[in-house]
Design a protein that fits this description.
Elements: E1 16-27, E2 30-41, E3 45-50, H1 56-63, E4 71-76, E5 79-81, H2 92-99, E6 102-105, H3 117-127, H4 133-146, H5 162-174, E7 180-184, H6 192-207, E8 211-215, H7 219-225, E9 228-233, E10 236-241, H8 243-248, H9 253-261
Helix pairs in contact: 3-4, 3-5, 4-5, 5-6
The structure holds adenosine-5'-diphosphate and magnesium ion.
């Protein structure tokens, strides 16, 4: 067989940042995720949209094992995370290792309130990753500078606006140099005038090739930054595709209706 006649090689595993395959999650008798599959290659920005209660947060929480999936496959950075059929937490150490590769930013800015921004950002590098303190501080200051908070390093969260706190939360998530950033509605708790500054930071991260999964209600933003859009409905992917198609020519009636309601 000549080289030309061979099948094109499957993408090298190194190009894939996250694989989710047939993910199921139930809470008691409530089946919240009913077989969700998605793949993000390195550098991909995947936007996850869907109505309230469709399972968006549960999906992100399963990916970093804040919830234990009921079944399915999750691979982060070529490492498959064992999911036990009995629903008990899988290998603790593995989960801790995986978590340090996933930077998660939640809806509510959950900074440690009794610590300055700098202390917030260095916490995990110093105490979990055992990064030397001076090195962690230098990196934290650079990250705070990146999100426009260089002059707030010694400030406590309570003295900052919601937008500033959320930008600090992004700096903190970046401090572990994550393979993938997970954002769960990062702007939905903000006053409208503060949304733009946070989206702008996320937009910059997308532009520099960070792999990201973003749950958002900001459709204009999703359309602009995402490579791929996933619409969840009742725990299943109802429709997915490139943003131009999902937003410009939605096939499913449910998605069309959803897009009308969110504007
Ligand atoms: P979304 O983020 O799309 O709004 P969620 O993933 O938060 O949806 O929730 C999906 C469904 O799962 C909802 O019906 C919610 O009430 C339920 N749910 C989420 N977390 C839990 C939990 N820890 N225990 C029981 N039910 C939950
Ligand atoms: Mg949610």
């Amino acid at each position: 067989m000549t080289a030309e006649s061979r099948q094109p090689p499957a993408p090298a595993p190194a190009e894939t940042a996250i694989i989710v395959e047939n993910l199921h999650k139930s809470f008691g008798s409530l089946e919240v995720l009913r077989g969700v599959s998605l793949t993000a290659r390195k550098g991909d920005v995947v936007a996850i949209i869907g109505g309230s209660g469709s399972g968006k947060s549960t999906m992100l929480r399963c990916i970093n094992f804040l919830e234990t999936p009921t079944s399915g496959r999750i691979v982060v950075n070529d490492e498959e995370i064992a999911i036990r059929p009995d629903g008990r937490p899988a290998n603790r150490r593995q989960i801790e290792r995986i978590r340090t590769r996933l930077g998660m930013v939640f809806q509510a800015f959950n900074l440690w309130t009794h610590r300055t921004l700098l202390e917030n950002v260095i916490e995990v590098p110093v105490h979990v990753l055992k990064t030397p303190r001076t090195q962690a501080i230098a990196r934290a200051l650079a990250l705070l500078d990146r999100v426009g908070l260089a002059d707030k390093a010694d400030t406590f969260p309570a003295f900052l606006s919601g937008g500033q706190q959320q930008r600090a939360a992004i700096a903190r998530a970046l401090a572990v140099d994550p393979t993938v950033m997970l954002f769960d509605e990062p702007t939905s708790a903000l006053d409208p005038e503060l949304v733009g500054e946070v989206l702008s930071v996320i937009r910059d991260l997308a532009a520099e090739g960070r792999t990201m999964l973003i749950v958002t209600h900001e459709m204009k933003f999703a359309r602009e930054v995402a490579d791929h859009v996933v619409y969840l409905h009742q725990g299943r992917i109802e429709e997915e595709g490139p943003p131009e198609r999902v937003f410009g020519a939605p096939q499913s009636a449910r998605l069309r209706q959803f897009l009308q309601t969110v504007g």
